[in-house]
Amino acid sequence: xxxxxxxxxxxxxxxxxxxxxxxxxxxxxxxxxxxxxxxxxxxxxxxxxxxxxxxxxxxxxxxxxxxxxxxxxxxxxxxxxxxxxxxxxxxxxxxxxxxxxxxxxxxxxxxxxxxxxxxxxxxxxxxxxxxxxxxxxxxxxxxxxxxxxxxxxxxxxxxxxxxxxxxxxxxxxxxxxxxxxxxxxxxxxxxxxxxxxxxxxxxxxxxxxxxxxxxxxxxxxxxxxxxxxxxxxxxxxxxxxxxxxxxxxxxxxxxxxxxxxxxxxxxxxxxxxxxxxxxxxxxxxxxxxxxxxxxxxx
Length: 298
Known about the structure:
The chain is an alpha+beta fold. The protein has helices at residues 2-15, 93-98, 103-119, 124-129, 131-146, 165-244, 250-263, 275-297; strands spanning 19-22, 26-32, 35-40, 43-46, 52-59, 63-66, 70-73, 79-90, 151-162.
């Protein structure tokens, strides 16, 4: 019974505590007798009591570090505050454990010095408009510098750029002036376009009025020509009728003359009668009046 209790104590004290389960996205750095022995990945592992020790528990997830604003000086001697955000992950737990002391602090200092070097080559305006360039350069430099530490720098982002207060006020004034200039340009362009549209409208209106007047004149001329043609046709037919009528039939000649006038649609009340027919027409008119008087007397 005592032996069983001893074995049970040994199992509880020595064996069970040394059974380790490494979770997902974690790595354990194991030392044996003070020296690096192995890197445990996720799964079940057994540690030899009093011989093996866990030197470091490393997370393999991507880590985000937001570093405090750093004072930097631009090429044109403007001091500003810039803070950065670094996204990195640990690719080699052994190098991360033994490569450098306080790796996060080392990354922060390296970020600050790299940022000063890059901003020192840029002027204020370039600094404010070149975030992508700054981010790309910093990521390349930090990634290369942290390789011996088992760290992979995935992204570097410039979070805020804070110039001095007087510079901010000057920039705001410049921005307001630029906006006012753009507003005036837009107003001038609007007025120009409006004037052009008005002129084009007046031009098109004048062209349409001229075309309408032209069309009206053409129609009037066509109407007059058509009326004149009808008159000429009526005259020709009337003259033909007068010529074809017998000389002694004055009434017939008179009716032919009246037909001539009627065929002119009332537009030729003063028909010009040829000289050779004038006597016939006059005689017919007198005969008509005499006949009318005789009818009245009866």
